[in-house]
Sequence to fold (568 residues):
Amino acid sequence: MTAVGRVLGTQHSNTREFRVVLDDGEYLQLDDLVVVRTQVPKKGEISTYGIVTEAEAVYEGATFESDTHRIAETGILPGETVRSAQIAVTRVDPEVWVSPDPGEVVERATGDERLKALYVDEMERPLPIGVGRDGEPVYADLDFFDGRKGGHMSISGISGVATKTSFALFFLRMLSGRPEIVGEGAANLRILVFNVKGEDLLWLDKPNKHFGDDAAATWRTLGLDPVPFPSVKFWAPPRSRSGDVVIPDTGGRQEGVDAFVWTPAEFIDEGLLQFLFTDASDTRNQIQFIEERVRAQLRRFATDVAGEPGAIVLRDPVEGVKGSVTPNQGERVIRDLDTLVAAIEEFVDPEDGEPDQRWTGRVQAGTVSAFMRRLHAASHRLGQLVRAGESRRIDRTDAQVTVVGIQSLHDLGQRFVVGALLAETFGEKEQSGQRLPLSVIVLDELNKYAPREGSSPLKEMLIDIAQRGRSLGVLLVGAQQTASRVAPEVMENAAIKVAGRLDAAEAERAEYGWMLPSTRARARLLKPGTMVISQPAIPVPIVCDFPFPPWATRKEEVAEDVDPFDDI
Fold:
């Protein structure tokens, strides 16, 4: 290790921070790690580790502002440049919490001392999550992500600048590419990614033609070969609601993308009606009550149609009779969402007569009409997602990473798909009762699905995942522009918090209380690719960079296939 200066003796040092006056010919930059060794009476040598949070310089001997010119240009006044750095204490070893003595030698922490400063020696499974300014890896304690000691990750920052989704994908690539670190959780690890904007995530299996040697070297420093995701399956909603051929609704990519739909039978059996009512305003009246009644009655009356996979009829159940039936003459066969809505309307809002109270309960006619208006609107906006025929539901076991493109859907359709897949994933884990295999869910714009205000089935499910998911191996990686607009129950349960560049006003919110004052100031100026990371294993936030991705993020970035015989 190299001595860089001494503990400043003109102001008090304490157990939280101290200042270093630098030696001539030495420097400390932001995020550098240092160590000070102090002889403590009756305890022996104590090592205090810290990280640079600010660097300063001053002319010693200058009294007035104009003295700067006299010292720098003419040498009339005696003066000397003195450089110093502010250090935030990260660790004391052994844990005898005393302040370092003035005048003690401050050394740059390298090698094993650097790892001790970052608590890596106490991490059972340290996973590289970026590189520091010294070019060396920065680690996260995986126990605080995969559910052993904590779970979930929250990523915040300004859209387009903070590179939230890029960091999430980088983290997942490290997670999936380092099975020797992940351990038993690496077996059958499944990752579900929702593509909510553009088609950026539909190219994770394609190499990026802009990927360079410097980025490749950084990936190798982190212990991973820089290649795209090796096991990815892509899904998208169908382009239209009619026709025998189901074509995925994507623009830049058609090859390798499958269309997904739910059959009416699956829609009813899995209780997906609730995810057509995910607007927070629906809980302020009795619409939610009607939805629950209708959902229960659909399960009771729905009967499979013989010879038509996924189609149903609504018929009074006959005791002891199960299986498929042949429709009676004039009986409505439900093959899509439109016909299902029409059938529901016959029971809850008939043209003449009173609604069937088995379906609606005792509610006012105006509430029933409001329920049907929302149901008709939902049918118009996402009707293509429900159709009879062979099952085309998303199979999350086909590949390690499943990307579901919902960017072409209306906002209601996006919430429906997210809710349906979260319910399926969480339901399977609840039935098994086992933490392994792990299921990781990546969801951008989390504030839209779990807003701070209001209530909805989707929000309640995300809160449930945040609170109980880690014990069942369901781990949420949520990204949002503003953490202050996300339900507190979700944010509070994220053990690892990450932030890119933040809006100045947002950075002052209580949700970012885990940052040091100096870190909050820096968060307003961070460049793309630089993130601030907080984790329980380290008492101060760490700033690090993550490398350029080797996979394409748009069609224009896809590297052309190279023929290996071109040079022969």
Notes: Residues 411-432 form the longest helix (22 residues). The chain has three domains: 3-122, 137-260+394-544, 264-385. The radius of gyration is 29 Å. Residues 264-385 form one domain.
